[in-house]
């Protein structure tokens, strides 16, 4: 029985004229991959020693609807998605032709306030979740955090990002001493670099939230797109890390106090039953980074509470696809890993 034409990777898809701003196979199929030369931006810091983090538990199970070798979106869906999504889908098609199942991302140490570079993989199955707006795993959220870290660096915003891999509840519970050390040293490094905020995505077990810590105002906002989650594990860890930071930085003792935790912060709420917390977390981090330089007091940090529109989710997907194509896959991309073979 022949497969439907919209599920074949060999289907030719032409890039849309204007993108919205969001088993191995026996037969060879061709798909054109296009890339765009990116602008690279790097900054070097004198970095405190930070140990290598333990690995978090994988929380998102492989999507049962993902089938390696079949198109992730139909041709009509791809045309609506945007040119970068088309290019990323073609990358998957070309990878399938040579039995690849992932690509690698090389992160720069300064983006997550780490002592050294690191390499992680993005499985094609994780891309499927990105394409269909499903539950996002660590590789996608980590990549979006790198996209934001690079963006605020280029725009010279007073923001630093932490590694979502290090800040998940599973890592905190597995090696609390590591995470305390990581956050404490990140606070010192951010303060030394005149950063006013630390921001990160946190996986609480089966849910993503965005966290914003203001060093100046000693305030932490927990931006949660779904009510009913508790953050005691993270609150206690941040309190201890911040206390150590103040203790070991005498010049910062004046005017500093204990952290104030705002856990009922108003923000966009995802629809009931949706698995879009990863997209909401990405948007909340992006929004928080965009307004950071404009804030004059903590009361000015306000978000709407309605659900995000489909166009916003599409924009996030298109930006993430563009990051992969121009900054990871492209050989002159800042996060390109040469040994990956792309």
TrEMBL record:
<dbReference type="InterPro" id="IPR038765">
    <property type="entry name" value="Papain-like_cys_pep_sf"/>
</dbReference>
<protein>
    <recommendedName>
        <fullName>Ubiquitin-like protease family profile domain-containing protein</fullName>
    </recommendedName>
</protein>
<feature type="compositionally biased region" description="Basic and acidic residues">
    <location>
        <begin position="1"/>
        <end position="11"/>
    </location>
</feature>
<feature type="compositionally biased region" description="Basic and acidic residues">
    <location>
        <begin position="19"/>
        <end position="28"/>
    </location>
</feature>
<feature type="region of interest" description="Disordered">
    <location>
        <begin position="1"/>
        <end position="56"/>
    </location>
</feature>
<feature type="compositionally biased region" description="Polar residues">
    <location>
        <begin position="33"/>
        <end position="45"/>
    </location>
</feature>
